[in-house]
Design a protein that fits this description.
Number of helices: 6
Strand content: under 5%
Radius of gyration: 21 Å
Number of domains: 2
Oligomer: single chain
Number of strands: 0
Structural class: mainly alpha
């Protein structure tokens, strides 16, 4: 008997966990703070701890890395958000997930702004992993020198060993 297996990305998994955790907390009368991370909600459920928070409608749970000024922008719009500062290890994992997210957005839109977002995430990943932007550019240029770029639009179709 064949079972269909569906792979999901880390962001989708975290969103699903957060949604389920929120529903469980709501169904069990456990109050959680608006915008709390899925891990915070799970902790509240585990401890059956109530956190005072006003009732909110249209709660959206994201659990994703955002640009530094996004919380300010959200607050300026009159909304409430909850954030968490990540450890270095969690930050790198979140950046890797963000790369996937931004690449998928570019694939869907083919928008130059999405390419700019990809560059910003690549910049952040490089720095977080201890590689300066100058070093990253040096490595890129060396690879172009050794293997070429993509300007000639070459599509490799097949290779036959003789």
């Amino acid at each position: 008997m064949s079972e269909e297996v569906r792979l999901i990305d880390a962001n989708e998994l975290l969103r699903n966990i957060a949604k389920q955790a929120y529903l469980i907390s709501h169904d069990n009368g456990i109050s959680v703070e608006y915008g709390m991370s899925c891990f915070g909600i799970l902790q509240c459920i585990a401890e059956a701890k109530t956190i005072d928070a006003p009732e909110k409608k249209n709660v959206k749970v994201y659990s994703k890395l955002v640009r530094d000024k996004i919380p300010e922008i959200i607050k300026a719009s009159g909304k409430i958000c909850t954030t968490e500062i990540l450890s270095n290890a969690d930050y790198i994992r979140a950046l890797d997930a963000k790369l996937d997210e931004e690449l998928a957005e570019y694939h869907n839109s083919h928008n130059t702004e999405e390419l700019a977002d990809l560059l910003e995430v690549i910049r952040a990943v490089s720095i977080a992993r201890g590689c300066s932007l100058n070093e990253l550019e040096r490595i890129r240029a060396e690879k172009v020198k050794q293997r070429g770029g993509f300007e000639k639009k070459i599509l490799l179709k097949e290779v036959t060993e003789e």
